[in-house]
């Protein structure tokens, strides 16, 4: 079966199992799976869920901190779909599989994609526990999700990435965070394939190239979203100082622990952004 046919089948299954027709999609990264459901904030009405394993061709999350559930809700009256967890290139999936959910969300009518992730802080001024809005990225994953035959129905062969992260959204989320009393950093995200954490030498390279945060996700989804004409906002949570900045070794347990601590702040920013942006 062709890739676009698999996307169509997954879309059909989802739409048969929910009445929600989302305008906003949210991808929750490592340790952030319960950010939207369990934050206790007003403004969300939940409309059901579907497990990834039940959706045809939908890739299953295997990384720690990724629940693997698709939630449907209205957030301040805006129909939304929330991905509790993503899959990564390092899990052995192809780039087409990694970005399959983004393709499906685009086909379902999502016009705004809010992407979150856990990252390492390359910029020493960004402390662990800080949330940052991403203004640009550097793709060092060694591949691109658009390699192969282009589907002209989804987008042009050579999509422009000048404004991969919507400039108006960046300004709007800064205001949203300020109203919530939350300090929001801003920076460039550096994407590596993983799953090994970066070496101190690689972190020094990333800093020289202008990176502020580093991680193993996000960029494939952002590229595909731009290809499909979906506007993107990305919020990155600095889980730890990147390798070599301190004497500490890095661990996924530390990432999950930090993400649990910042989850409520992230939810407040996302909710306020959706409420005031009139998406």
Based on the model shown, name its key terms:
globular; 7 helices; five-stranded mixed barrel; 24% strand; alpha/beta; 279 residues
What is this entry, summarized?
This protein has helices spanning 3-16, 95-98, 100-108, 167-179, 200-208, 219-227, 252-277, and strands at residues 24-28, 44-51, 69-75, 78-84, 112-121, 131-139, 184-191, 213-215, 231-241. With 279 residues, it is of the alpha/beta class. Strands 5-8-7-6-9 form a 5-stranded mixed β-barrel.
Task: Explain the layout of strands and helices.
Blueprint: H1 3-16, E1 24-28, E2 44-51, E3 69-75, E4 78-84, H2 95-98, H3 100-108, E5 112-121, E6 131-139, H4 167-179, E7 184-191, H5 200-208, E8 213-215, H6 219-227, E9 231-241, H7 252-277
Parallel strand pairs: 1-4, 1-5, 5-9, 6-7, 7-8
Antiparallel strand pairs: 2-3, 3-4, 5-8, 6-9
Helix pairs in contact: 1-3, 4-7
**Main β-sheet: number of strands, strand sense, barrel status?**
5 strands, mixed, barrel
Radius of gyration: 17 Å
* pLDDT averaged residue by residue: 91
Strand content: 15-25%
The helix/strand class is: alpha/beta
* SSE string: HEEEEHHEEHEHEHEH
Termini, distance in Å? 35 Å
Overall 3D form: globular
Helix content: 25-40%
Number of helices, where a helix is a run of at least 4 consecutive DSSP H or I residues: 7
Query: How are strands sequenced across the largest beta sheet?
Result: 5-8-7-6-9
Oligomer: single chain
Low-pLDDT segments? none
Say how many strands there are: 9
